[in-house]
């Protein structure tokens, strides 16, 4: 992508005013995005994005610059401009490069760039037909297709030199059901760190029908009561609550500044013994998985909470300096336009010993949330507010009528303490996570869990 001699010159220029570390991130990304509505392709966009990010450290100071001009004089100018914000007494030279190689943990068999658009459109139309024909009340279906190939080169003044190819594919299906001037939506968005083979092996019928079933079910739902109840949260995307309300609080971006309720608590009990919380970027072909992070560190399995005890944090290279702890392979960024910081990959609650049937049967009265919607969280406190896309009443250990308008309100660390049953059925859900280093692909996951008491906001009192 760039010659080693040019990269060495850029790293040297970035250190020219006394920095103690410099890094270059080179990115060449190809993307394809299409949408289909009313059975017709509505948008079809493809593009290529190329750029270089340059970073310099001096102690606890970090400076970042980027450019889309890869001519030598432009790169040297960008590096020197970044260096101007740094001042030091001694000038160091970059260490000789040691080129690293690895075997990808996420095999790709069919590069999307090599697949004709007609095959991609066929996938979309099949999903549309299945979702639209699910029931006469389904008035509209939108299918969105996405694939990308991201090629990166990362080198730094410590001698690191490593390259990676990341290929991701995703399909998003949204169904709208209408009856008597009432409208409800259902959504499913599976994705993977895979090539076009992901779509060919995808259980398309399941995801398309599930989006429509959700919308149709909510047409017949009753208003959700408000109050404090035991709440059962199903697997897969149900894990978004702990991703937002706990996962972000375990990232060094917050911990290093003591802006997290989990700061300085390693070794303390923060959850019941039945809760183990993990971030694992090595899970094969999962949407949030990586081979290396965006600082060139190998992906790994990070156990954050083990049997209720806080064991560690997600740490990037810069915050490792502040914390005096090693990087955990968690430095991620959206693109060359962002400096990396500590971010999640595939974060989930590990499987427990209960079956879903046992969890429901042991709940005399409460709320069962099958699918979560969007929400808001304050990462400094863990306070959250999440909409529920599909919920049900639980009465006498059995599922009852569907409920709409439910929201879950609480505090992440406190909610974590109230988990009293953990199921066996671990599942992952694909999503995008936005933070200071941009929007990145992540998985959220968990088995079915029960929280002994949560504040549920509804549409009427009880």
Automatic annotation (TrEMBL):
Recorded superkingdom: Bacteria
SUPFAM superfamilies, sorted: Putative modulator of DNA gyrase, PmbA/TldD (SSF111283)
Domain Metalloprotease TldD/E N-terminal, residue spans: 23-85
Residue stretches making up the Metalloprotease TldD/E C-terminal domain: 226-458
UniProt KW keywords: Hydrolase, Metalloprotease, Protease
GO MF term set: metallopeptidase activity
Keyword Protease belongs to the record: yes
Residue ranges occupied by any Metalloprotease TldD/E central domain in the UniProt entry: 112-219
GO BP annotation list: proteolysis
Family to which the UniProt record says this protein belongs: Belongs to the peptidase U62 family.
Name of the featured protein: TldD/PmbA family protein
Organism for this UniProt entry: Bacillus salipaludis
